[in-house]
Amino acid sequence: MQATILNTQVNLDAIKTKIADKMDAACFSAWIAPISFNLSENVLELCAPNQFTADFISLTYMNILNSVASEYGLTVRVVVSHCVKSVKTANDNNTQTYSAPVQENNAGDFDSFVASEENAFVLSACKKMAAGTATFSPLFIYGPAGCGKSLLAGAIKSSSHGRTVMMSGATFVSEFARALQGRTIFAFKDYCRNCDTFILDDVQVLAGKRATCEEFMQLIIDLRGAGKNVVLVSNAAPSNLTGFDHRAQSLFASGLVADVAAPNRAVRKTIFERAGLDSHIADMIAGRVISDGHVISGVVNKIRAYVEIMGDVVNENVVEKLLADTLKKSKSPIVMVKSMCEKLGVSYDAVCGAGRVRSLVLARQMIMVVLKNVTNLSLSEIGEYVGGRDHATVMYAIDRIEKLSANDLVMSATISEMVDEYK
């Protein structure tokens, strides 16, 4: 009998050791180490202290448990039992405390977000969420870097009534792991759920982190079930997020999905005007910076610092020197024409010559259209850069290409691409 008991204990220790080798150390310490193992015939029985722990272990770690148990010819069963009262476990909310991370005070208001017509919908949705009148949850906001997603999330935080918890994806991952390791996981859960609005920025950071993602999905379900607001911010739409299974993508998209467009030229100009620049200077800079809110913010900060330190007026000469590392270099019309000739597969000399081959004429006329859209040149001046054509010829060419491109998607796309490049 003594030998049988000893052999069973050795087997259980060996099984625990193998399970620990296949798991993250913090997760093993928090979930598996505190519970007791029993062998009953060919069944490895894990005694969990409560139903939540049993469900979590079954959902998250059953593949690992089955893999190890099968090496010993065993099957696994997770049960709720009070046979582990003598083992100190992290399952008593009354004795747990959780110290939340200091939240950055980066919340602005909706007036700080300069909205174009493209962003009118997402702005309205954010305002409804902040006002507590939204009939959708979660609100999933996505868009490219620097489009203002985090600014909108911060505006929701500052304008919402009641308690708001806002975290970045990286913070949620690290705090979840810290709570597991410190055995304060239930206090962490209470902290996240005891709010009226929960905001997570950079959802994509959770990709591939199975346990964290499972916990976050349950958090969304619980908050939504309690009638709370959930706001998610990401760099891609739910269906385009990699590292998440279909369940997560479906849950993220189950409320309202709204994209945020990058700031267009009008928005960039407004931002620079708000920074105190004259309208024509703001317009010049707006046409020569990329549509990235982070870059635009850097330009604004640099201009404000210059005015504060130097006490000088910001004119065109100052802008050219101060922002030489940021502004796109403007190209002369002749340089643009030669570049477009290369793109269209025709020689510059042929474009400026008298050739009347159809492909050459179309290329010449497309170049005229692009010059009209990206420069302030008159029609006669445009004609000078394509072989000395007169005003009437340029006008005819522009009218013809506009009609042709309305039915020719390839031509329309080619012209749009060149306009965007040279604008």
Number of domains: 4
Number of strands: 8
Strands side by side in the biggest sheet: 5-6-7-4-8
Are there runs of 5+ residues with pLDDT below 50, and where?
1-10, 83-94
> Major sheet, described briefly?
5 strands, parallel
CATH class of the largest domain: Alpha Beta
Task: Let me know the average pLDDT.
Answer: 85
Radius of gyration: 31 Å
The helix content is 40-55%
- C-alpha termini separation: 88 Å
Number of helices: 19
- Kindly report the name of the CATH homologous superfamily of the largest domain: P-loop containing nucleotide triphosphate hydrolases
- Run of helices and strands: HHEEHEHEHEHHEHEHEHHHHHHHHHH
Q: Briefly note the CATH topology name of the largest domain.
A: Rossmann fold
Globular, elongated, flat, extended or rod-shaped: what is the shape?
elongated
Provide a descriptive summary of the structure in words.
This protein is an alpha/beta fold. The chain has 19 helices and eight strands. The chain has a five-stranded parallel beta sheet with strand order 5-6-7-4-8, with helices on both faces. α10 (265-274) crosses α11 (279-286). The longest helix is centred in the N-terminal third of the chain and has 21 residues, at 51-71. It is elongated, with a radius of gyration of 31 Å.
